[in-house]
Design a protein that fits this description.
This protein is of the alpha/beta class and 216 residues long. It has helices at residues 2-47, 65-77, 104-109, 149-155, 192-197, 204-207; strands spanning 81-82, 94-100, 116-117, 120-127, 138-141, 162-165, 177-182, 185-190, 201-202, 211-212. The longest helix is centred in the N-terminal third of the chain and has 46 residues, at 2-47. The model is unreliable at 2-6 and 29-60 (pLDDT under 50).
């Protein structure tokens, strides 16, 4: 019995380590790509070559790197959060990731739609306005919706939706995870208190990588 318990504990620990390693790999890759993109953009600006960045033909369908990065974060976050059982009462086999007025983020999320996370498939929903919001497990709020942030968070009260954004001060203004850029590296802030009020449990492995903040 003791050996069985030790084996189960080691398996759980190994799984957590793999998840943490996966997120660290994403963070490292993101940091490098952003640094490279900044250099390229600077060079193009100096040489007058920024016109080449405008979408043409098939390339217009590819979301910018910024949004691919954010989509990767949302997918990784889904592995480090535990939702209450009632969050899956309508569908036990799906994790819904929503986006409000997402623009390019919608096409970026298509790259993770259908992928598995903890035995569930990722489904993506787009909401054009706060009034259209319905339950989803993770909601990304684009900076374009900053003026409607209070209305969005008010509409989500009483739900177990993990809110993520790169709006300045998002985690201090009632959101849960705020994506921030520090010295060309993507980092994130987490408001644990807000998440707990929504009955969400965030893994300690993710918390160790975050800046913990509280509300204003």
């Amino acid at each position: 019995m003791g050996q069985h318990l030790r084996g189960a504990g080691q398996a759980a620990g190994g799984s957590a380590q793999r998840l943490r390693a996966g997120l660290l790999a994403v963070l490292t890759l993101i940091g490098r790509r952003i640094y490279i993109c900044v250099i390229v953009l600077c060079l193009l600006s100096i040489t007058g070559g920024t016109d080449g960045l405008h979408p043409h033909g098939a390339d217009a369908q590819s979301p910018p790197l910024e949004y691919q990065v954010k989509a990767a974060f949302l997918y990784q976050f889904s592995k480090f959060v535990e939702w209450p059982p009632q969050a899956f009462q309508n569908n036990q086999y799906t994790i819904c990731i929503g986006v409000v007025d997402g623009g390019p983020m919608v096409s970026a999320l298509q790259s993770i739609e259908g992928k598995e996370t903890k035995g569930r498939r990722v489904a993506v929903k787009r909401f054009k306005t706060p009034e259209e919001l319905a339950f989803c497990h993770i909601l990304y709020v684009s900076p374009a919706m900053e003026s409607r942030l209070a209305a969005i968070l008010e509409r989500l009260k009483g739900t177990s939706t993990l809110t993520v954004s790169d709006i300045r001060g998002f985690a201090r203004r009632g959101g849960m995870i705020n994506l921030i850029t520090v010295e060309d590296k993507i980092q994130f802030e987490i408001n644990v208190e807000t998440a707990e009020k929504a009955n969400l449990q965030i893994s300690s492995h993710l918390l160790r990588l975050a800046r913990i903040v509280s509300g204003e």
